[in-house]
């Protein structure tokens, strides 16, 4: 007996109804701070190509321990200037003192960045010993940001449970605490099994959570690397994706076509499970995210 059944896909959210009656799929795109002049040019080209499709704007990541604070600020303001779209800057608190975290938020505000993804984050690699006293939990950071400026604050959600949480219910309680502290929405770590997102929405609803929970979509390029990354983040890897990309070992020419087709299938299933929009990881590359946006009705 299946003890963890997939949730039913609601007919009212299926694609014909969505595309023909309700219009375009809201999309946002994630960038990372570049490390060189060539990287900055590549990021800005990605922003330029995707701006017409980015109805919900862009986000810019921050390294563990706030290690890319300046790079995050520069990339966020560059993206906002280039696109004219809203940009959400990540703020990773673990490894920063309270003053450092809030000074970073002040700089974002002064630079015109009004959206923040508030994260506790992971312990910085290679750093031993005690960390600076700061925000121990993302909910504490959210509450402080809410007092500081009128930010639009988002937080992270984990459809397959945060690795440090003992149970899914415990993890959803933590999500509820972050929302109650003043966050307006949540963005999910990417999933490769859209049914996990559907189950997560149902579990959140049972806990009284009605804030928008936007799933992350990872373009399925470079499968061996992506699979290792997923496994390192405790993301379930469906057998069908392994079987699909096994075909590229003998016929590598198929890889870009299979990657595009599988990414579109993932996006469609997430929408069918009730996603209010999609947050697409670009890795600062635009071709597959742009193709996905065209197919999802943004063109």
Automatic annotation (TrEMBL):
SUPFAM superfamilies: FAD-linked oxidoreductase
Domain of life: Bacteria
Keywords from the UniProt entry: FAD, Flavoprotein, Oxidoreductase
BP GO terms, sorted: methionine biosynthetic process; tetrahydrofolate interconversion
Co-factor requirement: FAD
CDD domains reported in the protein's UniProt record: MTHFR
Pfam family, one: MTHFR
Pathway given in the UniProt record: One-carbon metabolism; tetrahydrofolate interconversion; Amino-acid biosynthesis; L-methionine biosynthesis via de novo pathway
Keyword field contains Flavoprotein: yes
Cellular component annotations (GO), alphabetically ordered: cytosol
One MF term in the entry's GO annotations: FAD binding
Reaction(s) the record says it catalyses: (6S)-5-methyl-5,6,7,8-tetrahydrofolate + NAD(+) = (6R)-5,10-methylene-5,6,7,8-tetrahydrofolate + NADH + H(+)
PANTHER family: METHYLENETETRAHYDROFOLATE REDUCTASE, METHYLENETETRAHYDROFOLATE REDUCTASE (NADPH)
Family recorded in the similarity comment: Belongs to the methylenetetrahydrofolate reductase family.
The protein's name in its UniProt record: Methylenetetrahydrofolate reductase
Organism for this UniProt entry: Roseovarius gahaiensis
Lineage, opening ranks: Bacteria, Pseudomonadati, Pseudomonadota, Alphaproteobacteria, Rhodobacterales
């Amino acid at each position: 007996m299946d003890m963890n059944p997939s949730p039913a896909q609601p007919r009212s959210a299926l694609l014909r109804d969505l595309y023909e009656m309700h219009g375009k799929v809201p999309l946002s795109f994630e960038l990372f701070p570049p490390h060189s002049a060539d990287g900055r040019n590549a990021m800005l080209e990605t922003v330029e190509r995707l701006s017409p499709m980015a109805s919900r704007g862009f986000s810019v990541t921050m390294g563990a321990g706030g290690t890319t604070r300046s790079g995050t600020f520069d990339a966020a303001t560059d993206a906002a200037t280039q696109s004219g779209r809203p940009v959400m800057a990540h703020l990773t608190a673990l490894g920063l003192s309270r003053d450092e975290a809030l000074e970073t938020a002040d700089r974002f505000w002064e630079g015109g960045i009004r959206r923040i993804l508030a994260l506790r984050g992971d312990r910085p690699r290679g750093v031993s010993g005690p960390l600076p006293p700061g925000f121990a939990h993302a909910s504490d950071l959210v509450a402080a940001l809410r007092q500081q400026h009128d930010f639009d604050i988002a937080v992270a959600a984990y459809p397959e449970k945060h690795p440090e949480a003992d149970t899914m219910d415990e993890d959803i309680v933590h999500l509820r605490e972050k929302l109650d502290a003043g966050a307006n929405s949540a963005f999910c770590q990417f999933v490769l099994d859209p049914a996990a997102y559907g189950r997560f929405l149902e579990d959140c609803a049972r806990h009284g959570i009605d804030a928008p929970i936007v799933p992350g979509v990872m373009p399925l390029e470079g499968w061996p690397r992506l699979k290792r990354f997923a496994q390192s983040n405790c993301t379930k890897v469906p057998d069908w994706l392994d079987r699909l990309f096994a075909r590229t070992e003998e016929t590598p020419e198929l890889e870009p076509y299979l990657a595009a087709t599988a990414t579109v299938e993932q996006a469609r299933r997430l929408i069918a499970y009730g996603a209010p929009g999609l947050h697409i990881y670009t890795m600062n590359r635009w071709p597959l995210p742009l193709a996905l946006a065209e197919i999802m009705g943004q063109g």
